[in-house]
Recover the amino acids of this structure.
């Protein structure tokens, strides 16, 4: 059974990269352009895991994670944060905001898949 | 099939252009003083996204510069730095450099450090972070991750070999003795309640751990512990496993669990975390901070029995998957969500469509013609059906053309950089205002407009605007204005470049033209004609060639470029008030509304927008000035008469033009001429087929087309015809009737 992923990033390049990395690896990919769009998508689907960028227009990653954790359907959905810095501070901030894990951009395909399997089976 | 990575790379550079556009928009808003918090966020995100994408393609120069740029912007965002005018101007320069770097990366070249370093140095002056070393360190994170995965990605079989070698060389001592490569044979994992809240799931972690080939797993349940912290897994390995690899598995839950390592093959029943040879610093663990007993365990269903190592295999039993927190329904009818309402299409596909629609237009015209020539009445179903077909064809054609249309905004933004650079180079204060940025025009036109427009903008700053002192002396504001506007005007796009400078110095222009032998010393020229001298090849007003606008390119080159796009350029200038260059361009390069005329038995197409009116000449109005030189009186003004048959070399001049049909053609610059034809055949849209590739440039001819009956007709270029006509020098245009 494929793992369904919702990837939220305002950068088209990043969405393309995620799609390319996952599409032939048994993942079902859904995309959104920012947190607000991500929440709209979540009205229709219940992904197994959510990947989100932090710096985004309208609703940023932290606000998006807050909103995800507030919804009963997604309270426990694993969330991976995409971050360009691998600093401990940012990881701690992601964690505090309710994220499950993180992926440092730029990511390698196997690293991304590993991280997804780590949080979503 | 193309490499998907290359596609993404190409798409990344397109996205970069959009991001840079957004960046400059935001900077402009900041510069205008009307910025809010979101403005700097937009600017920051643009640079941040460029950095992120550039990192993925290992574009180190871009990443490094974007990082410094972004850091300064982050400081503004967080209020550490005030967005002073100087800083915003510096950000503009940074944006320019970033654009250069991105384009250089796209073209696989580099940007000279001599351009980048001074800006970085300036940025450094604003740095609020005393620790610049940290920034450098962060940058080193931007290695493509394929490198840094190295040993982690190694297959387990290979790892076994490593371990065998390791075991052979080392006695099975506690891992602490080998700080470089600590190994363990027992891993004890005890989740804290917080772990479940973060969305992590012990089962998946253990499954990932299963890839390291443990020999046994045991679960201990302690009913006395806090809910959510009652389970402890002990995983045993026959062959020692690198602690680092285990830590990698538990990376996300560091601080949310107790993880300990043992070198003993058979540890005690329960390993207290503190006693175990730990590697995760206990200080990191919130051992003393047990959260509210929210009983997260009720939401998950961890297996209560000892897990068989088999269950930790990747394709584990089905129930392993159902134990997922959140119990998300999978697959099924969930619709795929499209991220964006836009579709990106390869340009060649659009062009093919444009071409096919062009063929359709021709085909439709041929059909109309056959029906018209048949004996069918005008009220038959065929003719009314054909009417609708005609309408539909037109609609399709317009829609297809719209696909190629783009707003001129990106072009205008590039010009704001030109103004910044040009004004800095000549030491003038200049403000660029733009108008009509959303006016759309064919993509190719936009691309080919960049060079001429750049030159015109440089000219406006360099020659158009006076020196600051002169402006002040004339009672004008010190800051010069350059205005760039685009608008739709009767089926064409008009782009204007105007300045509020001193206007064209006509006596000086005239003198230069005389000195260079372009006009005779006694030439009587109107103001408009003097202005036209600027477009003559070899004309340059700068006394010394500045490295700014005098790059060996004159306005004649600009004019040729515009003409090649089917456009026209004209000047209006008022002494002391400024100069306006006006470019009028066709909306599309693919079709043209034309008048089909016949000259000496040849079908020719005259662009409709060049025709002011059609005339039937009477003997009275035509005046003969000399051999092959006639003028015609049109509403009290004499207009040169050009016989197209003669101009194109089809026939000898006629003795008498009385009764002949002429097309009065008007140019942007006010030049007019009456073009004599034998008859007017039709008025219709024609599809432009280039002939330059096959025949080079043919004077007076812009292109060719295929008419409804399959006949090939040349499309005329009236402005070229009029300006290079054989009678031109003898019959100056626009002689006012006395």
């Amino acid at each position: 059974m494929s793992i369904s992923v919702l990837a939220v990033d305002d950068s088209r390049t990043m969405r393309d990269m995620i799609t390319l990395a996952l599409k032939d690896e048994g993942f079902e990919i859904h995309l959104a352009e920012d947190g607000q769009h991500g929440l709209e998508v979540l009205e229709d689907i219940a992904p197994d895991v959510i990947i989100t960028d932090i710096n985004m227009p309208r609703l940023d990653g932290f606000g998006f994670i807050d909103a995800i954790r507030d919804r009963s359907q997604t309270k426990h959905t694993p969330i991976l944060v995409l971050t360009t810095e691998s600093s401990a501070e940012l990881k701690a901030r992601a964690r505090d905001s309710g994220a499950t894990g993180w992926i440092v951009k730029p990511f390698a395909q196997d690293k991304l898949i590993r991280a997804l399997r780590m949080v979503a089976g | 099939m193309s490499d998907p990575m290359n596609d993404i790379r190409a798409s990344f550079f397109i996205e970069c252009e959009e991001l840079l556009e957004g960046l400059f928009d935001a900077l402009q808003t900041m510069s205008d003083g009307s910025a809010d918090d979101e403005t700097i966020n937009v600017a920051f995100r643009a640079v941040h996204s460029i950095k992120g994408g550039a990192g993925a393609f290992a574009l180190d120069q871009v990443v490094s510069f974007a990082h410094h740029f972004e850091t300064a912007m982050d400081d503004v965002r967080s209020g550490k730095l005030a967005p002073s005018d100087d800083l915003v101007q510096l950000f503009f320069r940074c944006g320019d450099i970033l654009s250069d770097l991105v384009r250089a990366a796209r073209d696989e070249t580099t940007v000279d450090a001599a351009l980048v370093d001074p800006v970085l140095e300036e940025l450094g002056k604003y740095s609020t972070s005393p620790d610049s070393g940290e920034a450098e360190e962060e940058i080193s994170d931007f290695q493509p991750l394929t490198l840094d995965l190295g040993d982690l990605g190694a297959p387990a079989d290979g790892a076994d070999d490593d371990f065998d070698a390791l075991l052979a060389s080392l006695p099975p001592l506690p891992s602490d003795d080998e700080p470089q490569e600590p190994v363990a044979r027992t891993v004890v994992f005890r989740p804290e309640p917080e772990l479940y809240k973060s969305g992590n799931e012990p089962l998946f972690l253990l499954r990932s751990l299963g890839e390291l080939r443990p020999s046994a797993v045991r679960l201990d349940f302690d009913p006395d512990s806090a809910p959510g912290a009652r389970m402890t897994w002990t995983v045993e390995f026959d062959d020692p496993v690198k602690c680092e690899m285990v830590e990698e598995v538990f990376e996300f839950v560091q601080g949310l669990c107790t993880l300990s390592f043992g070198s003993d093959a058979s540890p005690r029943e329960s390993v207290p975390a503190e006693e175990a040879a730990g590697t995760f610093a206990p200080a990191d663990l919130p051992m003393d901070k047990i959260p509210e007993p929210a009983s997260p365990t009720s939401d998950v269903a961890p297996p209560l029995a000892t897990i068989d190592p088999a269950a930790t295999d990747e394709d584990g039993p089905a129930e392993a998957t159902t134990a997922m927190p959140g119990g998300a329904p999978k697959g099924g009818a969930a619709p795929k969500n499209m991220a964006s309402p836009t579709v990106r299409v390869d340009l060649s596909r659009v062009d093919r469509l444009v071409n096919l629609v062009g063929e359709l237009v021709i085909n439709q015209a041929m059909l109309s013609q056959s029906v018209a020539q048949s004996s069918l009445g005008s009220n038959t179903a065929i003719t009314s059906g054909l009417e609708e077909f005609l309408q539909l064809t037109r609609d399709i054609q317009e829609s297809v053309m719209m696909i190629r249309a783009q707003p001129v905004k990106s072009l205008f933004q590039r010009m704001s950089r030109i103004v910044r650079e040009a004004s800095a180079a000549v030491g003038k204060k200049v403000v660029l205002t733009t108008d009509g940025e959303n006016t759309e025009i064919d993509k190719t036109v936009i691309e080919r407009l960049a060079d001429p427009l750049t030159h015109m903008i440089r000219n406006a700053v360099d020659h158009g605007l006076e020196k600051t002192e002169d402006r002040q002396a004339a009672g004008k504001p010190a800051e010069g204005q350059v205005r760039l506007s685009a608008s739709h005007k009767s089926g064409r796009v008009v782009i204007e470049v105007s300045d509020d400078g001193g206007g064209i110095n006509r006596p000086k222009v005239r003198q230069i033209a005389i000195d260079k032998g372009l006009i005779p010393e006694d030439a009587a020229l109107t103001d408009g004609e003097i202005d036209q001298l600027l477009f003559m090849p070899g004309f340059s007003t700068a006394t010394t060639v500045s490295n700014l606008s005098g790059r060996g390119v004159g306005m004649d080159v600009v004019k040729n470029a515009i003409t090649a796009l089917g456009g026209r350029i004209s000047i209006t200038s008022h002494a002391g008030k400024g100069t306006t260059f006006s470019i009028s361009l066709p909306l599309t390069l693919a079709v043209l509304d034309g008048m089909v005329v016949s000259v000496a038995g040849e079908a020719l197409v005259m662009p409709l927008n060049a025709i002011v009116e059609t005339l039937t000449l009477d003997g009275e109005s035509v005046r003969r000035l000399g051999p092959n030189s006639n003028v015609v009186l049109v509403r009290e003004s004499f207009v040169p008469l050009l016989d197209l048959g003669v101009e194109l070399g089809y026939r000898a001049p006629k003795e008498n033009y009385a009764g002949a049909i002429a097309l009065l053609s008007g140019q942007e610059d006010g030049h007019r001429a009456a073009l004599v034809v034998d008859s007017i055949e039709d008025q219709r849209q024609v599809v432009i087929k280039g002939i330059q590739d096959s025949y080079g440039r043919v004077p007076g001819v812009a292109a060719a087309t295929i008419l409804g009956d399959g006949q090939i007709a040349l499309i005329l270029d009236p402005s070229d015809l009029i300006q290079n006509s054989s009678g031109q020098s003898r019959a100056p245009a626009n002689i006012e009737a006395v």
Chain B is about 40% helix and 20% strand. Chain B touches chain A through 64 residues (CB under 8 Å). Residues 183-325 of chain B form one domain.
